[in-house]
Amino acid sequence: MGRLVVIEGLDGAGKRTLTEALTKALHDRGSSVSTMAFPRYGESVHADLVREALHGEHGDLGGSVYGMALLYALDRRDAAPGIRAALATHDVVLLDRYVASNAAYQAARLHQDIDGQVVSWVRALEIDRFGLPVPDTHLLLRVAPAVARERARHRAAADTARPQDAFESDDGLQARCARLYDRLAEAGWLAPWHVVDGTARVEVDALVADLLASP
């Protein structure tokens, strides 16, 4: 059975870049790796509904915290068999976002802390009711919200097919979400967390060694 490693962080933190670097480093060590990113835009009807709602479609759906959280969760529920299959055939499964993203962003929208109702609800829904695989490790790619904001805006300007959505363009939401990610990491929510400085050169080989050595 492989290890399930989740990379979390703000929009623009550099999660995709870290996923690619970790995948290469793991391959170089002879480990087999499978990757997946959430939401699974273009693959999941639930993820596509999320994207459309975040760009103003479907009436007031985008304003519904629990409605949007449910769509994110349903996307992962549908992906769960693929995650389990990947864990059975690979040494490491790397996920770009997972359950903690839902907890952090929805709590940030409601101005709640991690002991608030929505974080408990997300865990009960995704882990207990939907039975999603529990991560072995989280990696929090930590950057200041201002840095993440500039990266996200630069990315949107460079790729006209990927304009910023309502969450990415909400500076206050991103700042609150950064604090909630820190709180989830401090609490070891769902699994142990490793905090990675997203503004410094990541020592990928050392990080991989730590991940593979973790119980």
From TrEMBL:
Gene3D superfamilies: P-loop containing nucleotide triphosphate hydrolases. Residues 7-186 form the Thymidylate kinase-like domain. InterPro entries: P-loop_NTPase, Thymidylate_kin-like_dom, Thymidylate_kin_CS, Thymidylate_kinase. SUPFAM superfamilies: P-loop containing nucleoside triphosphate hydrolases. GO terms for molecular function: ATP binding; dTMP kinase activity. Pfam families: Thymidylate_kin. It catalyses: dTMP + ATP = dTDP + ADP. It comes from the Bacteria. GO terms for biological process: dTDP biosynthetic process; dTTP biosynthetic process; dUDP biosynthetic process. Its EC number is 2.7.4.9. Keywords: ATP-binding, Kinase, Nucleotide biosynthesis, Nucleotide-binding, Transferase. PROSITE patterns: THYMIDYLATE_KINASE. GO terms for cellular component: cytosol. Phosphorylation of dTMP to form dTDP in both de novo and salvage pathways of dTTP synthesis. Belongs to the thymidylate kinase family. This is Thymidylate kinase. It comes from Saccharomonospora marina XMU15. The lineage of its organism: Bacteria, Bacillati, Actinomycetota, Actinomycetes, Pseudonocardiales. The gene is tmk.
